[in-house]
Amino acid sequence: MKSGTATDSCSEPKFRALFLTRHSGLSASCRHRALQYFPYLKSHGWSVEWSPLLSDEYLEEYYRSNRQNYWIGAKSIWHRTRTLLGRDLHAFDAIFVQVEAFPGLPFILEDLVLLRRHANVVMDIDDAAYQW
Question: Order of strands across the sheet with 46-52?
């Protein structure tokens, strides 16, 4: 599944949700925690926008080399911050954050960019989450 918007084309959505996941669809965690719910939400009138932090290419390189590319990670966090600051987050009825929106950075950044700008933020803190 590609990032973007999923809506029912025959009617206006009842609700809008933004999903901020750490990884793209190659990640089992992302598929299990977010993507599997998109068809259900869509069938119940939700418009779902999905914004993965790290791309399939990042994961493919990681799986191949078993090394993290911190440069890509830093660029991805910078891009997500700019994107979220430039958006009207009140256009969404709910914002779903898988584990954390800005991995490796202080929570105050999420507080400033998300929580203080939108009341309905769902934080999915996996019990197996760890600091990478």
Answer: 4-6, 46-52, 15-21, 94-98, 121-124
Q: Report helix angle 56-65 to 70-85, nearest 10.
A: 160
Using one digit for the tens of pLDDT, what is the confidence trace for 76-114? 889 898 888 888 898 999 999 988 888 888 888 888 888
**pTM of this prediction exceeds 0.85:** no
Segment 42-68, tens digit of pLDDT: 999 999 999 999 888 888 888 889 888
